[in-house]
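Convert to structure. Protein one:
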Amino acid sequence: MLLAGATLLGGCERDTLPHWLGGPRPPGMIIEGPLAEPVNPRLEALRTLGRNGMRVSIDPSFGDYGYVVDFIPRPFDCYLAPGRGFDEERHRREGCWMIAVRYTIFGRDEAPEPRIRRFRFYVPEEEYRDVVADFDRLARRWRGSDGGVLDGTSVGVEQFREGRLRSIESNAPTMFEPDNPAANMRLHVHRLLLAYGPTGAVPRNSDFTVGRREFEELPCMAQSFDEPDPDGFGAGEDACARDLARPPRLR
């Protein structure tokens, strides 16, 4: 049986083989090392993230902005307690206590000045630890995407775990792939930015699209930054509230 199997495989074209036998890798696979294409040469080197840091790069297809979020556990090169195998003594000696965040917004040609905006802030260690644990859980069972989507929001994750670097890049949404590690990381990062990041510099929508010109006539699509809104979105005097107040036949 083994000989017959070997003969059968020998007659296959390379692109028909499964990836674990030398065929092409499915899109959105976890790989060892950094992403093949550097995100932006103006960014700090990955080694500045430390042995348990992470870089998440978010690039919507139709927005005026791209985003890079660096998570840097402090003190530098500290021990990030895993969900399993927690070493209490090591955590006491060298555990992480806070997570520094470098948040960079890159404006495209359509975006107003300044084209590059940089922010620094912190998130609690336990918040980051939960995000990493969820990424680890999804990555252990992830075998790649079934396919791809033409547009969407591309997400690249470059994650260090005790000094070992692994990466994934995908533009599939959780609606199509609920277990996709990159798609879920986009939602985690959006939540952390809204909770702890600078007001007015975080997209309202979790697909991170801001400034798409052709949607200006649809103000309730929320493709804007989270500027302060005393009444709440869609209430009071904002553009969405005015649109909702119009008779349905006029919308």
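Protein two, convert as well:
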Amino acid sequence: MKLLTFTMLLFAIVLQDEQQISNFYLENQSVQYRKVFELNNMSDSVIIKKLNSYLPTVSCLRNIQFNGNVFTGRIENLTVDYKKYGGRWGTTWIALNHPMNGNLTIQVKNNKYRVIISDMEFISTSPYIVYDVNGTVTRKRGTEFSANNTIIQGLDFLDKCFTEKFTISEQQLDDNW
């Protein structure tokens, strides 16, 4: 009986090690955005070719490098248009009023690509304030997501922005113009 209780407790701790809101994951006191985009009708080499031509056109991306099936780079000064997704000034997570920076990784595998954004921060210049996403959207020393509805809604707006920014549209996929 004691072994069963211990096993169930250990299993519960392992399950709680990673939490999720939208496509944001909290793991080891660090928040990451992770989303998989499926392109079933394309090979990995075609997806890489399309990403290679699309990513340089995205205004907020810097230092994009390609190695194997992985793109890496920086997101700098990304402005989230939360009003486009239903947010209003004064009732939306305050960090979204400022430009965002973060690290970007895109992995290509099995007719899919996965976008991973880490080390996200929003920076206000007047006055100078850094909203570190790891500290801002978590509680209990970074062990769980905040239950604050404004922050949860803000993460949803951010998810919509990232999805829009990193979805390759059919027009971008079509070489026949």
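The longest strand covers residues 112-125. The chain is about 30% helix and 35% strand.
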